[in-house]
Amino acid sequence: MSLLPVLHFPDPRLRKQAKPVVTMDASVRTLADDMLETMYAERGIGLAAIQVNVQLRVVVMDLSEERNQPRVFINPVILTSEGTGEAQEGCLSVPDFYEKVPRAERVTYRYQELDGKTIEATADGLLAVCLQHEIDHLNGKLFIDYLSPLKRQRLRKKIEKSEREPVPVL
Ligand code: ZN
């Protein structure tokens, strides 16, 4: 397994569209393993392949407190969504920035497991939010795209500031 570098906003590669996984071969398994290792190392709860510069529809997640329930979603899609809610979100590609964005409350979704088996299920709560966030990544969309112009301006200023300040490399 190996750690993969995570792309940071405003890297244009985060705007690419991911392609469906057609063959569930060893390279997909390796990618999922590497993504999980990267997600754990970066203390994230979800990661989409686009974020590590791989344009495939692969998402990994672990929503457990103990960080011992890794999940892999191949070719995930939202089939239906209902209700509206707001959740505080962050993203490994937008470090140290958290904002509430609107999301559907409940989603029905379909994906494939690494063995090729197709699963269809319904989610609410954190899993529903995470699925919407990660599937957005596969379509080149970021959670900050939902922000009001004012909040987006605040983010832009924050990024400019962090780029100006010298960061000590130890
Ligand atoms: Zn994200």
Quaternary structure classification: single chain
The pLDDT mean sits at: 95
- The outline comes out as globular
> Care to count the β-strands?
5
Helix count from the secondary structure assignment: 3
Q: Rg from C-alpha positions?
A: 16 Å
What is the spatial order of strands in the main beta sheet? 1-2-3-4-5
Distance between the first and last residues' Cα: 25 Å
Alpha-beta classification = alpha+beta
State the major sheet. Answer: 5 strands, antiparallel
Query: Low-confidence segments, ≥5 residues, pLDDT <50?
Result: none
Strand content: 25-35%
What report would you give on this structure?
This protein is an alpha+beta fold. 27% of the residues lie in helices and 32% in strands. The protein is built from three helices and five strands. The protein has helices spanning 26-41, 125-138, 149-164, and strands at residues 46-48, 58-61, 71-91, 94-112, 118-124. A five-stranded antiparallel beta sheet has the order 1-2-3-4-5. Bound molecules: zinc ion (ZN). Zinc ion is lined by residues 91-93, 133, 137.
